[in-house]
Amino acid sequence: MDHFELRNGELHAEDVSLAEIARQVGTPVYVYSRATLVRHAQVFREALSALPKVHIAFAVKSNPNLAVLRLLAKEGYGADVVSEGEMNRALAAGIAAQDIVFSGVGKTRAELKAAVQAGIGQFNLESEEEGAELAEIAAAMGRTAPCALRVNPNVDAGTHAKISTGKAENKFGVAYDRAVDIYARLAALPGLEMRGLAVHIGSQISDLEPSRQAFLKMGELMKALRGRGLAVTHMDLGGGLGVPYKAGEQLPTPADYGAMVAEVAGDWDATLMFEPGRVITGNSGVLVTEVVRVKQGANHPWVIVDAAMNDLARPAMYDAWHDFVAVRPSGESMIANIVGPICESSDTFALTRTIDAVKAGDLAVFRTAGAYGATMANTYNSRALVPEVMVDGDKWALVANRIEPATILAAEQVPEWLDLP
Ligand code: PLP
Predict the structure, then answer these.
(1) Is 276 near ligand 1, meaning CB less than 6 Å away?
(2) What is the CA(297)–ligand 1 centre distance, in A?
(3) What angle do CA 304, 383, 59 make, to 5 degrees?
(4) Nearest alpha carbon, ligand 1 atom 8
(5) Which structural domains are found in the chain, ordered by start?
(6) What is the pLDDT of residues 169-182, one digit of tens each?
(7) In the prediction, which pLDDT does 158 show?
(8) Most buried pick, 86, 321, 328, 377, via CB within 10 A?
(9) Catalytic member of 247, 343, 406, 414
(10) pLDDT tens-digit profile of 231-254?
């Protein structure tokens, strides 16, 4: 459920007209609904309420906007970060270092050091080599780093290949068969406190069975470690729960997910950790865009909008679907191809799609754009970096400025040996 609805024939975010935001901020612009974010955060937490010890670390990568992070901090969420930049955002938003999990396959030495310094709550180690390096860094600083070992369970999440992370051929985690020995060796190192295991098999997961299989495998590993006298107090089950991108699409709900986790892991006697991203932010945001023009096509008209693949990369990267609806629908529909202005054929949002009829100057939105939207934006084709707005009832605020091409140009310089004669 979200709070983007038609009121008097015009699409609103909560009580605010999207046309009014577009008039004041310009387009393209991301708009987030505070009420939707809060609801998703609470629904996810409630879905896990049968479990005795739970820590929820929001996957910052899905939407790192400072206002979004602050809102989730207020909801009691920790953060799952994958870079020093994300860590600093989470800290700046008021999330306690203790509640931050540091994931990622390529944490640099400098990042590990900064995270130890900050007192990060858990490092999810992706290799024995990383563990050895962290042990050395932490010991030299007179500190002990709390760690989980990320395991690759070799389970196919059944999602898009580019967001699948738990198959043996993916770069993430250590091989399942080697995990017990690696854990034992790392647990013996000064500077590390090995406290658990972590797993994350992919994103936009639409079938709970692969996750169930992965969690069962993790439970077996946990028992094997405990059988060798090793402490396992934390089990991080990652994120990945999918969201409906198409109106009417049925996916497992957070409650279904919570019931599955309770069935598999309810008696593990460990703190269960979760790293949801998309399920919190996905349907909490839309990308508002204006139709630049409609051009005749071979089969269908090209609806050319002022948002492009640099603003919303998912369709170009993952062939992802985003519903496209007019801000002031006329009731008429058309079959069209929707594209942006970038000079790439991959700058295509939809082909042969039945949409609300639109013409030049009309406003429309791409729905379910709150996750992996603005965070992946870039300035390709010397376009502006897209701004972000948050709505709260009848209030709204700009939560990220549009960064103009001139600002980016001003950060570049030409060496004097390229001076023109
Ligand atoms: N945790 C890890 C380690 C991830 O790589 C990701 C994203 O792929 C997430 C959590 C969040 O996934 P999602 O946004 O699908 O919940």
Answers:
(1) yes
(2) 39
(3) 95
(4) 203
(5) 4-32+282-410 (2.40.37.10), 34-281 (3.20.20.10)
(6) 888 899 999 999 99
(7) 80
(8) 377
(9) 343
(10) 999 999 999 999 999 999 999 999
